[in-house]
Amino acid sequence: MAKTTVTADAIEKLAIKLMKEFEADGEPVTKEEALEMAEMEIKAKGIKNYVQSTPEKKSTKKREIKLDAEKVKIIEILASYLKEIEEMDFESVAIANPQKEITFKIGESEYSISLIKHRPQKKK
Hints:
Layout: H1 8-24, H2 31-45, H3 69-84, E1 90-97, E2 101-106, E3 109-114
Antiparallel strand pairs: 1-2, 2-3
């Protein structure tokens, strides 16, 4: 890696430019301060700044859930059956999820039934 040599003349020119800028802003600086700032500025230009950008997140679109007609029908049948049973006192029988869950009460206790459809086993 080759170092670039900066001449005193370049530092001097930059210091004068900095002095004029600061004076225009109403904050005059001495020549020594301007030379020091010019030197630091030139050294800073040689430093490489590696910053990793944050990856863009993909937009999260709501996925349309396709109802499984078979599961919906099973849940409906089970819910209606629970409502008709007289041996136990099923209260508040409700379909919480049309293709997965039925909730109900027996006295003070709350229950739920979940329906799970298993995938076929992979063939070896």
